[in-house]
Amino acid sequence: MTGSITAILLAGARPIADPLATAAGVPVKPLVPVGGEPMINRPARALLDHPAIGQVIVLTQRPDVFAADPATAWLADHPRVRFETGGQGIASSLLALLERDDLPFPILLTTADHVLLDRTMLDQFVAEAGGADIAVAMVERATLLARYPDSRRTWLKFRDGWWSGANIFWFGSKKARPVIALWQEVEQDRKKGWKILAAFGPFALLGALLRVLTLRGGMARIGRKFGLTARLVAMDSPEACIDADKPADVTLIEAILRG
């Protein structure tokens, strides 16, 4: 699979001003300094350094600000990086990209605030997601709290544990398009797990409310509903679900980087 994966790095801006960007005095959140450099640099390097990744597409509403900043201008000049201008929604921007023929599958999608993304995480995710039409990286609460007991995340409870997203997604084939379209419909409610589950039907919602579904079983059911292979990748690295979303996250990430 050397160089065969297309990576999409989400570097967009919210419709309202991001508090981290405002506090740092930068136009978009991915330019916020974390560990001495703009946060986008670390996940970008992790993707480019991984042998399975070919091209890296930076999806943003403001490609101009990255070329203009001396600390991120290297991205605009890199032969394997290209910038694409996205809209306000992740799913709608992704669907627009998929309408074109120059975005080959498989696609690995991650975010510019995934500062701790590294080779180990990518190795595991690529190995376990390979062959699936869609895969989602998650971290179980016990994995995170064993190492970072004070870290606060958004958790979804299932019969097989409490899970938090790790901001790494896999789209293995064009069969993923209907799932992305559904994601587009519920995108504004992605932090509200029950609304996402409700979109997959009343039995999935009821199963989650009664905690009779495991997350793995729920993913398999989603796959059957859409006629595809859907897979959970339970990440071994607790750092996989620590993104730079709040000042406390940045403090923790910088402490981990120093360590």
Q: Roughly what is the average pLDDT, rounded to an integer?
A: 89
Alpha-beta classification: alpha/beta
Largest sheet: 8 strands, mixed
- Coarse morphology: globular
CATH topology: Spore Coat Polysaccharide Biosynthesis Protein SpsA, Chain A
Order of helices and strands: EHEEHEHHEHEHEHEEHHHHEH
Q: Give me the CATH superfamily.
A: Spore Coat Polysaccharide Biosynthesis Protein SpsA, Chain A
Please count the beta strands (DSSP E, at least 2 residues each). Answer: 10
Helix tally? 12
- The end-to-end span amounts to 32 Å
User: Which residues form runs of ≥5 with pLDDT under 50?
Assistant: none
Give me the Rg, rounded: 18 Å
* Residues in β-strands, percent: 15-25%
Please write the CATH class name: Alpha Beta
What would you say about this model in short?
By secondary structure, the protein is α/β, with parallel strands linked by helices. The chain has twelve helices and ten strands.
